[in-house]
């Protein structure tokens, strides 16, 4: 590998590497959204970005790492869509946006299947996706707990409910609904169930 005399890659090479990595992630999101965990192949992703499979894996330590980062990319895209930087939302509106995310998930079954599969595997000690999932849940709990607190401060939720506990329960419902929906999509209406839960808590859950 050519360096700049300091043992480091030239800046241009580093920038190109980052750009190629971003391109791989972008195409991987599309492939797994269309084909799911088992149907989406590294070969198809590599072909789309003009690399061999070995060249693709040069940018990631393993297929599992690529899958974990695909989910992180998906989270970033979802976050930008649900919570635009130029918008200020109330706690209730933020929770309603989560209901909107449940609706959106029904349109990307491949990514939902990928998430469900990889999250189950990630509980194993030493799995490459374990730490990314731990961090994802920490951030999501913090986001939703903040929304719950704001809803409580506005008098939209009872103040005697612990925000972190409630946020954790809402996340658990979302994940559990995904599993049931994947197994029986015709029997489980994810958006309707989540809206019902929010309504039971005193929130509308009707953002489209």
Automatic annotation (TrEMBL):
Residues within the DNA-binding region(s): 41-60
InterPro entries: BetI_C (IPR039538), Homeodomain-like_sf (IPR009057), HTH_TetR (IPR001647), Tet_transcr_reg_TetR-rel_C_sf (IPR036271)
Keywords, sorted A to Z: DNA-binding, Repressor, Transcription, Transcription regulation
UniProt key word Endoplasmic reticulum: no
SUPFAM superfamilies: Homeodomain-like, Tetracyclin repressor-like, C-terminal domain
Superkingdom as given in the UniProt entry: Bacteria
The keyword Amino-acid biosynthesis appears for this protein: no
Sequence ranges assigned to domain HTH tetR-type in this UniProt record: 18-78
Protein name, entry field: TetR/AcrR family transcriptional regulator
Organism: Cryptosporangium japonicum
Higher taxonomy: Bacteria, Bacillati, Actinomycetota, Actinomycetes, Cryptosporangiales
């Amino acid at each position: 590998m050519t360096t700049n005399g300091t043992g480091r890659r030239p800046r241009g090479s580093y920038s190109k590497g980052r750009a190629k990595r971003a391109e791989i992630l972008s195409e991987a999101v599309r492939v797994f959204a269309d084909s799911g965990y088992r149907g989406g192949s590294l070969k198809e992703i590599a072909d789309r970005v003009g690399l061999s499979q070995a060249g693709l894996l040069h940018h990631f330590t393993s297929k599992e790492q690529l899958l974990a980062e695909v989910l992180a990319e998906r989270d970033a895209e979802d976050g930008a869509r649900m919570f635009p930087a130029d918008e200020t939302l109330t706690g209730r509106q933020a929770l309603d946006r989560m209901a909107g995310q449940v609706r959106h998930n029904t349109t990307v079954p491949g990514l939902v299947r990928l998430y469900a599969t990889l999250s189950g595997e990630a509980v194993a000690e030493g799995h490459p996706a374990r730490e990314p999932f731990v961090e994802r849940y920490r951030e999501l709990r913090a986001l939703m707990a903040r929304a719950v607190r704001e809803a409580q401060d506005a008098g939209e939720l009872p103040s005697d409910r612990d925000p972190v506990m409630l946020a954790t329960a809402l996340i658990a419902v979302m994940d559990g609904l995904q599993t049931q929906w994947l197994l029986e999509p015709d029997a489980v209406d994810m958006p309707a169930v989540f809206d019902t839960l929010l309504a039971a808590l005193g929130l509308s859950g009707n953002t489209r």
